[in-house]
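Chapter summary example.
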Amino acid sequence: LRKMIWQVADFSGIRVITYAVMKNHFHLFVEVPEKSSEISDEELVRRFRVLYPQPTPWMPVKADVLAWHLRENTGEGQALRRSLIRRMGDVSELMKTLKQRFSMWFNRSRERFGPVWSDRFKSVLVEGDLDALRTVAAYIDLNAVRAGLVSDPKDYRFCGYAEAVAGSEVARAGLLILDRDLAGYRMMLFGSGSGDKLEKEAISREEALEVLDRGGKLPLPVLLRCRVRYLTEGKVLGSAEFVAEHLEREKALRKNPPVPKPMQG
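The structure predicted for these 265 residues follows.
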């Protein structure tokens, strides 16, 4: 789902500020641009390739074929352009595409059929004032803390802040709308998340003060752990050649075998 969020947002021209995927729901905080048809053919093909790297039964056209039609200004190319642009810069179209894609993957991977989502998504329009934006972002990134899953949002891997700390440039770019750096955003998170424990969990006053004392910066050992924690869910660690050699046997066993990926940071 997280991978699909980034893909569909990129296709739509919508910027993800942050997100949180919980056990039975997810939150997206996005910046939706003004609707525009002024998208170059090159950018249109790039976005198309992000969402449709391979033809599908629902979109049998290849990106190279789309590029040819646009270049030659054919009737089919212009019809495709109008159809694609209609789906961009629109939060309803983003959610429709995202939920449909996830439903198809979920049903196929579990050999089931039928609806996955129980209801239509709900949306709130947020004023572009910095305080309002920070409040909503903190609410989203602190979901796992309030649910009692972690005591620090950096430890919940399925949220925008944790992904940014782990080294994702695209996740970091979204949060930098809200503060000059991740340290500043972390100080804001702990300021927002601290308080008395009423019905849900909260960050303790002591934890909040410690973060503020550090200026929001993470100690180097902690930062390194955040960047390499995904190793526990990997298969092999080493040079690209070493990993490729040990993954060779997977090619015969899996349709889409894993590939070596460099560690960020």
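To summarize the output: The beta strands are 15-21, 26-31.
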